[in-house]
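Before going further, learn to read the protein records used in this course. A complete example follows; check for yourself that the lines match position by position.
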Amino acid sequence: MFYAIVAIIFLLDRGSKLWVQHVLWPGESIQVIRGIFSLTYIHNPGAAFGMFAHQTTFFIAVSVLVVAGVTGYYLYKKPLPPAQQVALALICGGALGNLWDRSLYGEVIDFLHLSFWPVFNLADVAIVGGTCLLVLLLWRAGEQEGR
């Protein structure tokens, strides 16, 4: 299940970014839900919120470490409960998606834009979702151990 989810996340991320590159010009925006959600094609040379812009080598190294660390943990701790596999696979697939962009373009393609949040992509959604799920699982496991 782990590898299938990693592949699905990676392919969805790549496919969505390729679609945006063919439909929009850099900087172009299309409103999907007026005042709430739009597709806005940008190149982000930094991390979340554009922080640490143009530190490509650093971000590539961190992404490689995350992918290697998550995959190594998965292999070492097998078998993991399904929810943990999903969480780790989301993080790994998202990290691979952004790693691909940074390796190819030196920056990440972002295009999902909520009016109250900076522009992001599907890889970011997977990383954040996987991290939140993993924290929740670890928190619940800690609660159960404390009983």
In short: Residues 2-137 form one domain. The mean pLDDT is 94. The helical segments are 2-23, 56-76, 82-105, 122-146.
